[in-house]
Each structure stands twice: as structure tokens, then as C-alpha cells.
Write a structure and sequence with these properties.
This protein folds into 2 domains: 47 residues, no CATH class; 60 residues, no CATH class. Helix content is 66%, strand content 0%. The chain contains 7 helices and no strands. α4 packs antiparallel against α5. By secondary structure, the chain is mostly helical.
Length: 107
């Protein structure tokens, strides 16, 4: 849905998706008192290039290493794409466990 003719996600497609689904988003969020999200438009998004992403990653040093007591190596792992592939590779397992828990407690 977000991929353009080139097969890549494009800013235009993201913008189109946000505006196309805005009314559905409003209906979805209304019962949850999320009014602050209803006014969000694509101008709040920023397409980051490599240098921008690396700069933001480096800003994490203070909160990740100094405040949370993590290691620099743990911070470097966040920059590694394989790390995120592994993290998101277990979401199906988490989903199954959440569903099992919800069944046990009657949700």
C-alpha cells in the first residue's frame, strides 16, 4: 500500500495513506480519548537519511548508557539491522502468548 512504482516506500505514499485513512483513524481513536493524535498530519514526520539516523542514534548515548547503565556495546547493537530482525522475529510468539493469557483470564 505504501510502495510506489519503484517498489519502495515513498513520502507521497505515506502522506496519501495518512489522509486517506484519517476518518477511520478518528473513529478508531475516539473511544480511547486520544484527541491529541487526531490532528497529526504528515508534516510532523521527517524522512531521515543515513546521517540524520546516525545523529539521532548517537544522541541516545546519554539516556541509554549514562542514565540506564547500559553498555556502549548494547547501544551499538541498536544500530545493527540484524538486531531488529531478531527482535521483531519473535512478535508472533509474543502474540500467541498474549492471546493465551487473554483466554485464561477471560478477555
Amino acid at each position: 500500500m505504501l510502495k510506489g512504482e519503484s517498489g519502495k516506500v515513498t513520502w507521497d505514499k505515506i502522506e496519501e495513506c495518512v489522509y486517506t485513512h484519517a476518518s477511520g483513524l478518528r473513529a478508531l481513536l475516539a473511544p480511547h480519548d486520544c484527541n491529541e493524535l487526531l490532528g497529526i498530519t504528515p508534516d510532523y514526520l521527517r524522512e531521515l537519511r543515513y546521517h540524520d539516523r546516525k545523529t539521532l542514534h548517537n544522541f541516545k548515548y546519554f539516556t541509554w548508557v549514562e542514565q540506564q547503565g547500559r553498555t556502549v556495546e548494547e547501544l551499538r547493537q541498536l544500530w545493527d539491522r540484524d538486531f531488529w530482525t531478531e527482535i521483531f522475529g519473535v512478535t508472533e510468539i509474543w502474540d500467541r502468548r498474549i492471546e493465551e493469557f487473554n483466554e485464561r483470564v477471560g478477555l
